[in-house]
Amino acid sequence: MSDQTPQTGRIAVVTGSNRGIGFEVCRQLAQRGVRIILTSRDENKGQSAVRRLEAEGLEADYYPLDVTDPGSIQRLRDFVERQYGRLDILVNNAAVYLDDRHSLLAVDYDLLRLTMDTNAYGPLLLTQAFVPLMRKNGYGRIVNVSSGIGELSDLGSSWPAYRLSKILLNIQTRIIARELRGSNILINAMCPGWVRTDMGGPGAPLSIEEGADTIVWLALLPDGGPQGGYFRDRRPIDW
Ligand code: NAP
Question: Of the residues 23, 93, 124, 206, which should be mutated to test ligand 1's pocket, given the most ligand atoms within 8 Å of the CB?
């Protein structure tokens, strides 16, 4: 099955999808017939993102989600179960990049905590919440949107909070992949490259469409596809 095959009937949650790469992932998945649950921590921004998709003739449902709030994650999970009875695709995309110092020895604890809550523990809690629902249906695709900054094989020291959070996101991807071995729930991490979003800035070489491509590919993997990998440009990279 190619990722161009219509995916009518599949249901996807994308975190932090009111703007940037997350919004583009919603767009590309909706274009392939996936039923999107667009989420955002600010309801007005999320609803206006849904209207942007609708203006392009695409459909999306909306639900508020702050990935740092376990109660918010639980409410989303209950909504998805009540409304659809299952979840096929989870894209852990939401993240913050708050570092203002470039030394782990000087990193501010509150900044570190917020970064870890958003970029690492939020994805973990979402995965914990939705894997049981995926198991019931015998199908799941989980994409952890990471960064090359989390590559242990090429480790720098700048952006310490963001770096630690993406390293943890990568490691949890591998651990959970082992737990899911033998199931049809595929979890993978990826780096979108340096992308022109609010986070990446205007000087980044990649368009948002290019940044979303590998995420969409991983979200639509066929049965028997890679499990517990780390990808860029649809190709495996070193951890
Ligand atoms: P972005 O433009 O800054 O968008 C981040 C999104 O995350 C926004 O929708 C934001 O919502 C949301 N978010 C932040 N905290 C949240 C929370 N607590 N709960 C729910 N949503 C929250 O970033 P991006 O460039 O699209 O990045 C998307 C992903 O790609 C991230 O995981 C990032 O680390 C990764 N990445 C990006 C680049 C790049 O060059 N852009 C490179 C490598 C990896 P608000 O609008 O409310 O702030």
Answer: 93
Task: Indicate if ligand 1 lies below 6 Å from the C-beta of 165.
Answer: no
Q: Is the pLDDT of residue 153 over 50?
A: yes
Residue 100: the pLDDT is 86
Reported pTM: 0.97
Distance of CA 218 to the CA centre of its chain: 11
Q: Is 192 in the pocket of ligand 1 (CB under 6 A)?
A: yes
Q: How far apart are CA 74 and CA 129, in angstroms?
A: 7
Q: Is 80 inside any structural domain?
A: yes
For the chain, the domain total comes to 1
162 among known catalytic residues: yes
With beta carbons less than 8 A apart as the criterion, state whether 133 and 81 touch: yes
pLDDT in the model for residue 21? 98
pLDDT band at 147, cuts 50/70/90?
Answer: very high
Annotate 52-89 with DSSP letters as a single string: HHHHTT---EEEE--TT-HHHHHHHHHHHHHHHS---E
pLDDT score of 35 more than 60: yes
Q: What is the CATH number of the domain that holds 206?
A: 3.40.50.720
pLDDT number for residue 116: 98
For residue 92, give the H/E element and its range. strand 89-92
Tell me whether residue 184 is in a domain.
yes
